[in-house]
Amino acid sequence: MAFTITIPGIIRLVVVRTPDEVLAVNDASMVERSLSGRGGLVNRSVAAKLAVFRTPDGDIWPAFRDRLDPLRVAHQAALEAALSDVRPLLRRIAPEIAELGGYVRDGAADRSLGVIVQQAVGRLFFANYTASEKSYYAARTLQTWLSPWPLRAFWIRRSGALQASLDRIMDLSRGDMACAHATALAMDNIVRSIKLMRRLARHGDNLAKIEPLDALAQTLRAPTRVVREARDERHVGPVRLRARSLVLLAVESARRQRPDPGFALFASAWNRCPAHGVVPALLADVWQAARADTGGSPEQRRDLQTDQIPVSKNPPTAAIR
Ligand code: HEM
């Protein structure tokens, strides 16, 4: 059930949490990614936060571009095509997959989990992308900037860490905004999944017993929330959206009610993640690497040779949170 918070002059907000409502509101033509900042103080402050993902020459990070923006559409299609040849890409990042597998198996790695994930994601774009503690710190700073804590956000901007982090991520991404998005923001979803895999692997003989596709289904997580604005007043199904409301789509909360990997990646929507094929395959390979010396059925190993992991596969019932 969606809920609304309206305090005149302060906030106009709608939070959408069920799978059908999230999909319907996401699909509504008057619900946009660009934020006007109208509707109250909070609306203005959230719009100001997202404005930092726009460069001085007007370029915008892809997940903040509007649905009909022709550049967004073209870049999404180009990246989706570039990422569709899944197996060669995963061979390219085989060393990082092995490191992540070691972390899932042993709970430790030679460098921090976030650095390994950031490098794996960066290398989907540039074969020689090199992440470090500093670049991962930059990613964490931008993730914290987007979290709902005003004091931390104030300090991040005031200290100069915000601009330094944006500059570092953009430098490493060689100006490629999709790479910046993936290595600063999207990578956190993968970090969460790998941590959950580690938890799963610690219990009993789960590592040997659970097949990679099931491990993937149990650990893939969606972004906690994505932000939109309702341009006009409209009912979308039972959800009433007042004009200039901030709309929070609680994607992870909705995914828990419909635990299908495709849902986490909006795989059937206009804003489908261009990595909807490679991310599930990467996670399944990490589990496979973790159990390399614990076995796993030959049938499953054959399965993982296929190029595309079906994202609509129904997960097993024993989901972890
Ligand atoms: C577990 C990992 C990931 C999850 C759950 C995920 C999920 C999502 C979701 C839900 C969106 C839509 C956001 C919105 O509409 O506001 C999105 C968009 C996007 N994702 Fe991912 N993502 C993941 C990893 C990645 C990776 C590794 C890449 C790049 C290699 C990537 C690239 C993008 C891009 C460029 C967009 C914007 C698409 C557009 O033009 O609208 N994502 N992702």
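^ protoporphyrin IX containing FE complex. The pocket of protoporphyrin IX containing FE is lined by residues 62-63, 72, 76, 79, 121, 124, 178, 181-182, 186, 189-190, 193, 222-223, 226, 251, 264-266, 271, 273-275, 279 (CB under 6 Å). Strands lie at 3-7, 11-16, 31-32, 226-230, 234-236, 239-241, 246-249.
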